[in-house]
Amino acid sequence: MPTHIKTIKCPQCGSTRATLLREDHYRCDSCSTEFYLDSDDITIHHKFETERNGSPLGNTFAAKFKRFFLVLLAVTVFFSLIIIGLITFGRSRAGSSGMGSGEEGMSYSIEELATFTTTAGRPIVVIFGTARPASSSNVDDAKSFVSFFDGETQKLVKKIELLDVKGRIQNMDMRRFGDGAFYIVFNEAHLYRLDPSTLDMTEVHGEDYKRPELTQGFAKVVFYYSQFGDALEVKTNLGESFVYYPIADKIYTEREAYFAPLETLPAPQVATHFSFSLESSDYPNKQLQLIRYRRLEQDGYPCEYPRFQWRSWDGEDFLISSTSEKRARLQGYEDLTPGAYYFSPGVLDESEDQILITFKPTAADDAKQMLRCLDAQTGKVLWSYSDDENNLHGGSVASRFAGGYVVVNNRSSYVISNEGKLVSSTDYRKLIEGRS
User: Fold this and answer.
1) What is the pLDDT of residue 104?
2) Quick check: 95 and 50 in contact, CB under 8 A?
3) Which of 28-37, 68-77, 366-375, 387-396 is predicted most confidently?
4) How many Cα atoms within 13 Å fall on the side-chain side of residue 260?
């Protein structure tokens, strides 16, 4: 049979480029299809291979591109899920960090901590703070709130939103007056009365006092110097300034208020208090003393607390002048703990049977502040406590309850037992603000 010369072409793609694998068997160099020749009529048999998805191996580039695209898509989805998860976690943290006192998507800031004991004898930790949308950096969007926690169990007892206090709490002050109620001033513009039995808060306006001088309302209100008792210093909306004693219902100009402690009290009683003497420029080496003193007083009336400080005048040494004794209505005093050394001291709580003080035991810069509980009658040390982190500084405040004391600083509270042992500590800034 005559031989016919024909061009061998790939039966799949038609390419004439092929590689001989073995006799009569070839692989296309273009699409990798394998084929073989049968008899002299050049019958071509080909092996048609596919991938699992049915795409021909000849479409190698398309297949690789598809795999690359799928891998890229998977990576993109993975990192997108991580980012969404972090955003969701952050929002959830901001919303839940208020220990039951927050809203979703809000950012919280603590401005002040305080503590007191309710009428029923429960210790309360008070959180003064602001909350604003996490998406906003405008302080005008902030809402002020007050949260009350049981100081022993750390459970939220009550939360109050201060609708009339706009924006951030720039400054606040809190005092307990002689009528047992707590008064709180926000931003020198808002005065609130807190009932320690119900934890209800009511804003007090100038016209609420039924004084003709105050009927125009407060343009500014702050506490008068604590040295002079339970008084408010106010400026009315007419621009007039007064010092007002709400319980006694007595009102003075600032000049008149200076002489008010010399007035005769209608029904005075003798009360015992404790105070540390002040550092003296006349006698810088004199040790500070814990003074127990007695004075005539009446709740809510003008007074002047004594200031004990060693002085020298006209050849005479004295701890308090005769003029100051008269203004303080002082009835007697003595050093409760003679010979004791105190540095940076303060009285945190006082009662008939015991007092709680804070101080540094030495003058060293790295000396740690400590707590000490003393018998109020004898000065005997009942217990002392200090912590390694030195968190109980002079700015701390305390409240007493049946189980011991709750002491708070600017971010945390500490429960100290009647034996002077740390029962628990709570970082309220971390819990409410959601940060360390």
Assistant:
1) 60
2) no
3) 366-375
4) 26
CA distance 171 to 408: 18
| Placement of tokens 């699409």 in the chain | 31
Backbone φ, ψ for residue 241 (5° rounding): -110, 140
* Long-range pairs of 95-100 with CB within 8 A, sequence gap ≥ 24: 97/431, 97/432, 97/433, 97/434, 98/131, 98/147, 98/432, 99/149, 99/156, 99/431, 99/432, 100/156
Residue with tokens 């073995």: 22
Cα distance between residue 429 and residue 424, in whole Å: 16
pLDDT at 225: 95
CB 379 within 8 A of CB 356: no
Phi-psi region of 390 (alpha: psi -120 to 50; beta: other; left: phi over 0): left
Q: Output the pLDDT for position 132.
A: 81
pLDDT above 70 coverage of the chain, percent: 75
* Among 6-15, 119-128, 200-209, 258-267, the least confident range: 6-15
Q: What is the mean pLDDT of residues 307-328?
A: 94
CB 328 within 8 A of CB 296: no
Which tokens hold the place of 247?
């319980």
